[in-house]
Amino acid sequence: MCGIVGYCGFRKAEEVIISSLKRLEYRGYDSWGLAVRDGNELKIFRSVGNIGSADFTGHFSGNMGIGHTRWATHGKPSEKNAHPHTDCTGKLAVVHNGIISNFQTLKEELSDRGHVFRSDTDTEVIAHLIEENYSGDLKTAVIRAIKRLNGSYAIVAIHSEGESLVACRYKSPLILGVGDEELIIASDVPALLDYTNRVVYLDDGDVIELKKDGYSIWNGKETTRSVESIPWSIEDAEKGGYEHFMLKEIHEAPGVIENNLAEYVPRDIELDVSFAEEVDAITVVACGTSYHAGLVGRYVFENLAQIPVRVEYASEFVYGSFLQRNSLVMGITQSGETADTLEAMKRAKKMGSKVLAITNVLGSSATRVADYVIYSRAGPEISVAATKSFIAQLVVLYLIAIELSSIPLSEKRKLIDELKMLPGTVQSIFQYESEIASLSEWISEYENMMYVGRGYGYPVALEGALKMKEISYIHAEGYPAGELKHGPFALLGERTPVIAILIPDDSYSIMLSNIKEMKARDSPVIALADENDTEVEKYVDRVIRIPSTRSILAPITYSIVLQLLAYYTAKARGCEIDRPRNLAKSVTVE
Ligand code: F6R
Fold first, then answer.
1. Hey, which of 285, 289, 330, 387 would you mutate to test ligand 1's pocket, going by the most ligand atoms within 8 Å of its Cβ?
2. Residue 60: what are its φ and ψ, rounded to 5°?
3. Domain harbouring 274, CATH code
4. Is the predicted pLDDT of residue 337 greater than 70, yes or no?
5. Fewest CB atoms within 10 A around its CB: which of 179, 457, 468, 549?
């Protein structure tokens, strides 16, 4: 999704803006631009495509400016639709993330009053509205203008006559970085980290004015917000010698598991889930990979804690869902900013449920909506495809389920001990990496794939297929193995390889029968199987060995292998792995 940066300080604004926008490239964009106040003039540059090695030496020389990477929603990617957008005078420019849902009405109204529009975007109405309300004070003009906006926005505005930037947010993230004699405002933390790790998370409705000598926040009245420290360094958000962020992040899984265990199980579990002790049911709302984490959670909670769990796509939950009395709603969201998940969480609150956010991002919007928050400590995840953040979500879900479970203490301890062994187990997966890479070369020749599993293997299959399709562009479907014969069998054949998730539990023997059925339809079958499995080789074409762990924890090990399989397949197909086409890291529109 779009990225926003605004700078006010002593450095050359264009240098800070370009380097910070590059830090946001992972979010996905199709065009970009910046505006810098140079003397009493506003200089603007906009372009389609990537920032690449943009060099403005000698072109800009101001210390205050705004920048944007755009992911098209209203109007196709083009120079005229790229931000910043200006008003009629050309003295005012804005960058905007989000969607102005009433922009058409506003545009007609403004056109009737003589405003001339030069883009197809919803954003341009903001510039014209601010212009109408401007009489020398940008902050007042912004406050008046946003009263007319419906939808969601994070906006930064600059005026050639002013000494300040004015920014505001509503349902779209915006964070202020507080440096020494400099301020930087951005939509996401990595954009700030080169300059400061002291941040202020803005709330919905906040309007902030940034000047060289400080900032002030207004939300109906002058307001203060606390300054917090980001526990990440810029190195955490860099590739560290790996070819892609995705590979680095897959390899960070052992550390991520350790971090969560160190935080929540220093001795015994010290995760406060007292708020969930009396609940009769859990509903998970989430999207994409986080939804798959919720599906794994369903099996874990039902098996360990005997709590019924429903898992809903957040985007569907809003349509007339019913919540059982005394339900806990869990919003699982890595970014904490996914618009559909936030809406579902708000709806659950309105329906009287307590809401828990499981998120990776300190201070994100999900943490404000929720009654309770548990951080899944994965560190910054830059690659669009979620990998280590999924593993972190699973660890947190296991810990909550164990804590809520009434299994004997000795059994809980055994599970915790096994969780503690997982970092080592996951590390040993990487010894099979070259085998996985060579198998991926073979897979890369196909255009369709099927992933199947049962029980814990089913959400693993869904997640494996999602990872494959999003980064390699191979059409991959995940299915419960038992469902194939109810329709998808028609797709099997020698050009449709099947990835079978074989977990050594009570699903194992029926999975072998299902595999025989698939082989009988000529599909090549690749099994992911436990390293001690001596049977499987007789039934399938290829086997990827998975280091042994208890079946309930197998979603972690098996998923990491599938992440590697997707990565190497995408690499063999020459895909742009960290920024797949059409996708964005943080989906802040519904
Ligand atoms: C897939 C992926 C997406 C996200 C989804 C939800 O690799 O990353 O499917 O899982 O957009 O994002 P969060 O977890 O930030 O709510």
1. 289
2. -110, 150
3. 3.40.50.10490
4. yes
5. 179
